[in-house]
Each structure stands twice: as structure tokens, then as C-alpha cells.
Design goal:
TIM Barrel, four-stranded parallel sheet, about 15% strand, binds glyceraldehyde-3-phosphate, EC 5.3.1.1
Length: about 250
């Protein structure tokens, strides 16, 4: 059975003290929860990963990275490799976030290299995609999402999908306070599962967790997460506060 996941993407927020404090608060709040089928993930910025790994040691809270470079090592000033992440004990990396695509020029071709490098190093990939408002308004959103998934992931063999998590993040809903309605999320998630089933098989499609991201908060999470094909969320703003984040973890 696929897992439910609440992943907090801290983006470029929180210094080292704030990061460890938030992580410690989350650790102490998850202690009393039954998380048999729910994974709780936090993704601090690179410089704070080590300290957050220490702060979460021994707890069920997982630490992941927000990005990585595709090369093994070398002259790539300012970049971080997959092996550097695994050497810290990380098991998961977010790739293809719309902010990386938009502000840092990450193309489908670059993402293929990143996905391959991550998987080759034993990392699980939370692969993000989603349409901009124009696409949604013109009814192009299914096509856009299909092409992002196809171009980024459909070169993979079926067995690689056990290390893939999908994150549908409509760009118009990220940090805007505007959320896709639970019905819009469900409709897209069902579509995503269908194209994965068509390309591979029903088993791969049913086993992959598909997260929703875009202005999820304690007020709307329950309804969104209750949808059949929504397996949790990739959370930005609401993940920066332990109470809000834990409220989301309790929203299944
Ligand atoms: O990675 C998280 C998403 O970009 C969602 O961000 P948000 O919850 O602040 O809208």
C-alpha cells in the first residue's frame, strides 16, 4: 500500500538555530502520533541539513534535500552532489520544483540527469511538476502535466518507480493563498495515475504516492488529503511553524 506523506519544504527560510528549533519541536510533537502509514519529511536548506539530521536522530521525522546537482563531483562552484547528501544519511531529494524550473533554468533535460544521478545514488526523488495559471485558464493543464512527467520520468524502467514520489504543484497555487479545490486536485491526481498506468502498469500507478502542493494549510488540508488519489502534501509556508505542520500531519 502506498504511503501518505507530509513533506515540509522550508525553501530559503530559517537560519541554523531556527531550523534546529523547528525540527526539535516537530520531533517532540510527532512522538505521540500513530504514523504507521504516514511519513513526515522536513527539507531544510543545505547549510542546515547536518544540524537538522542531528536534531531528528532517533525519531521518525525524515530529512530530505531541496535540490542537488547532477554531476558526481568537480568544478561546479556552489553546488551539492547526490553523494554529499547520502553521506549525511539522507534518503530523499526534491527535484524539479517550479521555483528551480523558473528561477534557475532547470529544463526537462537537466531534470532527467538529476533524476538519474539521484536514483543511481540510491536516493528517492520527490519529483515536482505543475501548470501555470495561463495553462489552467486555457485548459492546457493536463497536457502540460503529462509532458513534464513524461519528459522527466518516463525514460525510467518500472522498477525505478519504487523510489519516485510525485508532487503536483499548480504554480498558480504556490504561496498565493489560492489552493486548487479538492476536486481539481483529485481530478489531476487521477489523471496522473492514469498516464502512469498507461505507460507502465496499474501496479506502478497504484503504488506511487502523489502529493499535492500549493497553499495547503490546517484549514484546507483535511478535505484535500481525503481525496482518493491525494496521498499527502508538499508544504511550503505552513511547514515553517511546528503547530501548523503537525496539524497537517494529523489531517488524514
Ligand atoms: O514546495 C512547496 C510548495 O511550493 C508549496 O508552497 P506553499 O505551501 O507555500 O504554497
Amino acid at each position: 500500500m502506498r504511503k501518505q506523506i507530509v513533506a515540509g519544504n522550508w525553501k530559503m527560510n530559517k537560519n541554523v538555530q531556527e531550523s534546529t528549533q523547528l525540527a526539535s519541536e516537530i520531533v517532540s510533537e510527532v512522538k505521540g502520533l500513530n504514523l504507521d502509514n504516514t511519513r513526515v519529511i522536513v527539507t531544510p536548506t543545505f547549510v542546515n541539513i547536518s544540524e537538522v539530521v542531528k536534531a531528528t536522530k532517533g525519531s521518525s521525522v525524515e530529512v530530505a534535500a531541496q535540490n542537488m546537482h547532477q554531476a558526481k563531483s568537480g568544478a561546479f562552484t556552489g553546488e551539492i552532489s547526490a553523494e554529499m547528501l547520502t553521506s549525511l544519511g539522507l534518503k530523499t531529494v526534491i527535484l524539479g520544483h517550479s521555483e528551480r524550473r523558473e528561477y534557475f533554468g532547470e529544463t526537462d533535460a537537466i531534470l532527467v540527469e538529476k533524476v538519474n544521478a539521484a536514483l543511481a545514488n540510491g536516493l528517492e526523488v520527490i519529483f515536482c511538476f505543475g501548470e501555470v495559471l495561463e495553462d489552467r485558464k486555457s485548459g492546457n493543464h493536463f497536457k502540460v502535466v503529462e509532458s513534464q512527467i513524461k519528459n522527466g520520468l518516463f525514460h525510467l524502467p518500472a522498477e525505478a518507480w519504487k523510489n519516485i514520489v510525485l508532487a503536483y504543484e499548480p504554480v498558480w497555487a504556490i504561496g498565493t493563498g489560492e489552493t486548487a479545490s479538492p476536486e481539481q486536485a483529485q481530478e489531476m491526481h487521477a489523471f496522473i495515475r492514469k498516464i502512469v498506468a498507461d505507460k507502465y502498469n496499474v501496479e506502478v500507478a497504484e503504488n506511487v504516492s502523489v502529493l499535492y502542493g500549493g497553499s495547503v494549510n490546517p484549514g484546507n488540508a483535511k478535505e484535500i488529503f481525503s481525496k482518493k488519489d491525494v496521498d499527502g502534501g508538499l508544504i511550503g509556508g505552513a511547514a515553517l511553524n511546528a503547530d501548523n505542520f503537525i496539524a497537517l500531519v494529523k489531517s488524514f
